[in-house]
Amino acid sequence: MTRVLGRAGLLLGLPVVLLVTWWFASAGSKSFYQPPLETIVKVFPDTWTGARFKSDVFPSLIRLFIGYGLAVALGIALGVLIGANRRLRALVEPLLEFLRAIPPPVLVPILILIAGIGNPTKVLVIVIGGIWPVLLNTVEGVRGVDEVLADTCRSYRIGGWLRLRTFILRAASPQIVVGARQALSISIIMMVIGELLGATNGLGYTVVEFQRGFQIPEMWSGVFVLGLLGVLLSLAFTLVERRVLSWYHGARAAERSGH
Amino acid sequence: MLEINALRKVYGGHGRQVEALGDITLTVEDGQFVCVVGPSGCGKTTLLRCLGGLLAPTSGEVKVAGQTVTGPPDGLAIVFQEYGRSLFPWLRVAENIELPLKSKGVGRAERRKLVSESLSAVGLGDAGKAYPWQLSGGMQQRVAIARAIAFQPKVMLMDEPFAAVDAQTRADLEDLVRTVWQRFGMTMLFVTHDIDEAVYLGERVVMLSSSPTHVLESLDIDLSAERDQLKTRSEARFVELRSHVYARIQEAKGAAAR
Amino acid sequence: MTTSPNTLRRAGDNPALLGLAGILAFGALLEVLPRVGVLPSEYFPPTSKIIAALIDEFGRGDFWQAVVGTVSTWLIGLAIAVLAGIVLGILIGSVPVLRLATASTIEFLRPIPSVALLPLAVVLFSAPIRSILLLVVYASFWQVLIQVLHGVTDVDPVARETAASYRLNRWRQARYLVWPTTLPYAMTGIRLAASVALVLTITGELLIGGTKGIGEQIAVAQSSIAVPSMYALIVVSGLIGLVANLATRRAERMVLAWHPSVRRELPL
C-alpha cells in the first residue's frame, strides 16, 4: 500500500511541485509579459468556452482531423504501392528522399499563393506535412514483410484484398504506427503554421491575434490550449496503438523471454 | 498424384550460376507417404518450392494431379520449417487456420467445423483463442499442421518441419504426422535431412545427391504400417534400411567432396 | 535480338539509374505541364525557370548570407538540444527514482507542439534569434532525451551483473557499460533531432523573421510575388535538408562502425 502511494507520489510529485512553484513565483508578478498563473487560469474559461470554441477551436479540430486522416490514408496507400513494387521503389526513392527533406512549412506560402487561404489550403497544408512519415514508414514496413509468411500466403492462394488486409497491412502495422505518430505531431504543427500564415479563424490565428493585441493572459491561455491538444491527442494515439499493436507487443515480449 | 519430369533449377545472377537441381525425375502415387532425404545444402528446399509452385523451374516440369504446375496448385498445402514465421502473429490460432479457407470461399459454418476438427486432430482442441506466440514451438508447428489439414489438400508438402524442435517433441510430432496421414489419406511428401526420421516415417525414401542434385535411389520401406518409436526403431529391418540410406548419403557426400 | 531486352533489363535492375530517371522524369513533367497549360504557369513556373532563378540566387551575396544564417542557427540549436538531451538523459536514466519522478512530466511536455510556444517566444525575447532557438531546442531536445533514456535502460542485465561482480566502480560502469549501450540510441536521437531542428529553424525564420535565413528569404519572395525565386528557395531548403540527412546518417555509421547492430527507430 505504501509502495503504491510512494509510486503515485513520485509520478504526480514533480508536476504538482512545478505548478505550485509557478503559481507562487508568479503570484505578485508585475511583468506585463509574464502574468500571474492565477490570472491565466482565471481568463481561461471565458476565453475558450462558448462562442470562441465554436468559431475557432472547432474549425481547427475539424481541419486537423481531416488533414491528418488524409495524410495517413494517402501515405499508407502510396506506401503500399511503392513498397510492394521493387522497380517503382528504385524509380521514386531518390525523388522522395529529396521531397521529404524539404521542410513542409516552406510550402505554405506557395500554397496560399496558389489556392488562397480557404479551408482546402489549410487541410492541404496538414496533408503535405503529415504524409511523409507515414509514406516512408509504410514503404519500409511493406518491404520488410516476412518471406515465410509471404510464401504461406502464396501457397494457400491468399490474394487480393484479403492478402492486403490480413497480411501486408498487418505485417507493416508496427512501422505504420511509428509513422502515424510522427505524423500526428507534425500535423498539429502544420495546423498552427497554416493558421498563423493565413487565416481568419482557428486556434493558431486566435493566439497570434491575442499576441498582437497585447492580451497577454489570453495568449498564455491559448498556448495552454495548444499544449493540451497535443497531450490529449498523443494520449488518444497511445490508446489506439495499444489496441492495434497488442499482438506485436505480446509477440515481442514472448520473444524476449526466450519462448 | 505428383509427377516430376527432368526438373532442373539454376539460380543465376551477377555472372555466377548455381545449379541447385540437376535433373530430378520422380513420381509419387496417390496417397503415398514419401520422404526425401539428402545431405544438407542439396537443394531439398528448392525442390519443394518448385513442387509448391513458389519457384519456377529452369527446365522440366512438375504435375500435380495431372495438371502442370505454373503457380501454387489447387489442393496442395505446405508446412514450413520456420513455424514461428509461417503463422500470422496478429491472428489467433483459429483465425490462422481459418484464413486459407476464407480465401477458398468456404462458408462460415463449414469453416468453424473444419477449424475445430483439425485442431482436435493435432491435439490442440482448446487452443483456438490463443495467439501463436503464446504457444511453445512444438505447439506452433501443430497449428501449422492443423491449418494444412483444414485446407483438405490432396498433397501435403513438409519442409523439414521438425528441424527446430527438441527431441521429445519431435518424436510426438512424427507420430502425429503418421496418424494424420493414415486418417486423411493425403499424398505426403516429407523433406528432411534426418535419415532416421525419413525411414521411420516413410513408405518410400528418396535419396538425393549433393548439388547439382539428382535422385540417387528410391527405396521402398517395407516396415509394418503401424509404427512405434521404441519398437520400430529397434527392429532389425529398420536398422538395416537406415544403414543402407546412411551409406548412400555418405557416398554422395564423398563424391561431392572429390 | 537477344541483347536489347537484356540491356533493357539490366538498366531496369539498376536502382541508381532508375532513381536518376525518376528525378529527371519529375523535372520534365514540371517543365511540360505548365508549358502546355495543364498547370497555371504563373503559379507553377516550368523547371527551367526555377533553375534559372536558382542560378540567379547563387550569384547574390544575401542569398549566401541567408544560407550561412540558417545553417548556423540550426547547428547552434541542435548542439544545445543534443548536449542537454544526452546529459539529462543519462542522469535521469541511471537514477531510477529520478526516472519515475520525471516520467509523467516528460510525457506531458513532449507532445506540446513547439510552434505553440511561438507567440510566447516572441513576447519573451526581443532578439528574434533567441525566439527561433527556443523553438528549435524545444522541438529537438525531446528526440534526443527519449532515445537516450531508452538506451540507458537497455543495458544488458547480464553485462551489468558481470560488471558488478568484477567490482567496476560507478565511473567505469558508466564508461564501459552504459555509454556504449546508449550511443546507438543517442545517434538515432541526434539524427531525428537534426531534421526536426532544421524544419523549426526555417519555420521560425519564416514566421518570426528578423534574422538572415532561407525562411526569411522565402517570406520576402512571397511578399513580392517572385514565384520562381520562391520555388528556387524551396529547392535550396530541400537541398540543405538532404545534406543534413546524409551527413547525420554518415556520422551515425562512422560512430557506430564498431557496433554489431544497426538500430532501428523505436516505436515510441
TrEMBL record, chain A:
Family note: Belongs to the binding-protein-dependent transport system permease family.
Residue ranges of the TM segments: 65-85, 106-132, 183-208, 220-240
Membrane topology term: Multi-pass membrane protein
Keywords: Cell membrane, Membrane, Transmembrane, Transmembrane helix, Transport
Domain ABC transmembrane type-1 positions: 57-241
Name listed for the protein in its UniProt record: Nitrate ABC transporter permease
Main location: membrane
InterPro entries xref list: MetI-like (IPR000515), MetI-like_sf (IPR035906)
Pfam families xrefs: BPD_transp_1 (PF00528)
Organism from which the protein derives: Paractinoplanes durhamensis
Protein location: Cell membrane
TrEMBL record, chain B:
Stored PANTHER family: ALIPHATIC SULFONATES IMPORT ATP-BINDING PROTEIN SSUB (PTHR42788:SF13), TAURINE IMPORT ATP-BINDING PROTEIN-RELATED (PTHR42788)
Organism: Paractinoplanes durhamensis
Domain of life: Bacteria
UniProt keyword list: ATP-binding, Nucleotide-binding, Transport
PROSITE patterns: ABC_TRANSPORTER_1, ABC_TRANSPORTER_2
Family matches, as Pfam families: ABC_tran
Any coiled-coil regions, as ranges: none
Listed Gene3D superfamilies: P-loop containing nucleotide triphosphate hydrolases (3.40.50.300)
Domain ABC transporter: 2-235
InterPro entries documented for this protein: AAA+_ATPase, ABC_transporter-like_ATP-bd, ABC_transporter-like_CS, ABC_transporter_ATP-bind, P-loop_NTPase
Keyword ATP-binding carried by entry: yes
Protein name, as recorded: ABC transporter
From TrEMBL, chain C:
Boundaries of every ABC transmembrane type-1 domain copy: 67-248
Compartments in which it is found: Cell membrane
Lipid bilayer topology: Multi-pass membrane protein
InterPro entries reported in the protein's UniProt record: MetI-like, MetI-like_sf
Keyword Disulfide bond applies: no
Chief location category: membrane
TM region(s), chain numbering: 74-95, 116-141, 185-208, 229-248
Coiled coil location: none
Key words of the record: Cell membrane, Membrane, Transmembrane, Transmembrane helix, Transport
Similarity comment: Belongs to the binding-protein-dependent transport system permease family.
Xref: PANTHER family: ALKANE SULFONATE ABC TRANSPORTER-RELATED, MEMBRANE SUBUNIT, TAURINE TRANSPORT SYSTEM PERMEASE PROTEIN TAUC
The protein's name: ABC transporter permease
Biological source species: Paractinoplanes durhamensis
